[in-house]
Amino acid sequence: MDQSSADEEEIRNKQQQQTPQLRLATMEEEVSMAIPQGSVQPPTICVVPEDLAEGNKGAYTPKVVCIGPLFDGERTMASMLTLEHYKRCCIRKLVVGGESAGWSPEIHGSLLRNCFDTIMRLLLRIRASYSSMSSSSKQGEGAMSDDEQLAMTMLLDGCFVLYRLLKHAQMAKSGGAMESDYDEWTHLFGRCWVWGTVKRDLLLLSNQVPFFVVRKLFKHLKVKGNATGERDDALLVSGGLHLFGSLHPPRLQHSAPIQCHDVHHLLHLFYLSVDFPPSDESIRHQQQQQPAALLAPELTRWVPCATELEEAGVRFCARKRGALSFLDVSFRRRRGILEIPPLQLFDCSEPLFRNLIAFEQTYPTTPGRFTAYAIFMDCLIKTAGDVRLLHRSGVLVNHMNGDKDDVAMGFFSRLCKEAHTSDDRNYLAGLMQEVNTYQRARWPRWRAALVSNYFTNPWVTTSVVVAMVLLALTVMQTFYSVYGYYKPPK
Predict the structure, then answer these.
(1) Rounded to whole angstroms, how far apart are CA atoms 210 and 157?
(2) What is the pLDDT of residues 307-329, one digit of tens each?
């Protein structure tokens, strides 16, 4: 062994001897700095966890428009550039108050700088709204700092969202769509109906701008052309409801107003619009109906599939009266009727449901009802026969492309992969326990077997009735014969 090799081996031995001490010192320093965050509010806009996104990452990725800092690296893609330019057009229209008005550097430039300065003062609150932040990729002299880059992103994206909300608020008030608006989108993209893709991107969890940024910009950029006689907050909410009106299920009896100050972002606004109304007393009562014994947090409550429940005497019915949301499932135990509000499935339904569930999985203050509903429906649908049964009952209406039974059969199973809920947060836990108790009873199963075997069509029913009449006549004849034998007439 030469001298150099011996020296290298001696150095390695010394490093190995020092490594445990260095590691201990590093751990001691890290532990001393690990201060619990206490009551810090959790972020409302998060990167979707890898386990949830696995299998369909495209459902969480924008196609034509980037909103917020989490997708900053994709803004320069060819598919995004058109709307990046359109965002600047939206700012101009909001600042000058119209499309044909001229630009005044003294008036409009000053207003734009005031908006930018306002956002700069909100940066701490903005950063707290996101689970992670990407650093600016621009380097060199004259490049913006990370704070300035983030403020510019909020200004562009916030004004874009604000302009669309105001546009749809005007559509809602006029009672229809504005043809010029759709012509504008067709001219921008070179094809019709592209706005559906934009709406899909605006409902992605990681593709959001905090709603307080939109509200703050609206206060600075109010113009006469946007006056509709509504309060500012109500105007933004009505615009958002109209914007996504074609995507959510029927509102049924959901009439409780949504408070603008409670909205975190556009996905949260949509979430509130299809969830139970928070002020309804009957929902509070329903939420208190917990099962007698709660399961361990790592366990998920289960019910048999739809065909097994039907064999046990449970009947399925589309609930159309008294339902407050498509989540408003009920069970009439005396009659064995499981009432589920109708749900229509489209090709856009899976990305939408996935992001709603991802929002519940990353934001702990949500009630978690979409996750619980998806798990419940996944229990019911295991085979193509379950899909057909729910379709005949009017509960499930499938408009998705492909083999309708196969696509619908795996829909809720894909949604529930790696999604979890605890028994005390499952609003359907009490109902599922009642269904399981009913399914295990003997009399409903016997009654269902009798109806299934002998009353499925009029010919079988007629033969059963005739047989019962003949049996009754035979019994009567036998009775009178025996009676006459023991007590003959005098």
Answers:
(1) 10
(2) 999 888 899 999 988 788 899 99
pLDDT exceeds cutoff 90 at 146: no
Nearest 5°: phi and psi at 332? -90, 100
Mean pLDDT of the chain, nearest integer? 81
Q: Are strands 343-345 and 330-332 parallel, antiparallel or unpaired?
A: unpaired
Does 70 score more than 80 pLDDT?
yes
Say if residue 265's pLDDT is above 90: yes
Task: Determine the Cα–Cα distance for residues 160 and 88; give it in Å rounded to an integer.
Answer: 8
Closest CA to 337 of 309, 363, 364: 309
**Alpha-carbon span 135 to 121, nearest angstrom:** 19
Amino acid present at 175: G
What letter would DSSP give residue 109?
I
Residue 248 DSSP symbol: S
Q: Regarding beta strands 330-332 and 337-340, do their DSSP bridges make them parallel or antiparallel, or are they unpaired?
A: antiparallel
Residue with the two structure tokens 């207003």? 111
| Rounded distance between C-alpha atoms, residue 47 and residue 31, angstroms | 27
Q: Residue 255's pLDDT is what?
A: 56
| Distance of alpha carbon 128 from alpha carbon 420, whole angstroms | 25
Least confident of 6-20, 238-252, 254-268, 459-473: 6-20
DSSP SS3 for 350: helix
pTM, two decimal places: 0.82
Adjacent-strand bridge partners of 398: 345
Q: Give CA angle at 407 (402, 410), nearest 5°.
A: 160
Cα 110 to Cα 32, 101, 113, 148, 384: the distances in Å are: 48, 16, 5, 17, 63
> Quick one: what percent of the chain has pLDDT higher than 90?
40
pLDDT at 226 over 70: no
DSSP codes of every residue in 10-38: HHHHHHHHHHHHHHHHHHHHHHHH----T
Dihedral of the CA atoms 48, 52, 56, 57 (nearest 10)?
20
Q: How far apart are CA 258 and CA 256, in angstroms?
A: 7
pLDDT at 187: 62
> Residue 120: which residues within 8 A CB-CB, separation 6 or more?
147, 148, 151
Distances from the Cα of 346 to the Cα of 54, 243, 314, angstroms: 21, 18, 28
Whether the CB-CB separation of 329 and 373 falls below 8 Å is answered with yes
Distance CA 401, CA 408 (A): 10
Q: How far apart are CA 12 and CA 63, in angstroms?
A: 52
Q: Which of 383, 381, 378 is nearest to 416 (CA)?
A: 378
pLDDT surpasses 80 at 467: no
pLDDT of residue 281: 44
Tokens coding 402: 């492909």
10 Å Cβ neighbour count for 17? 9
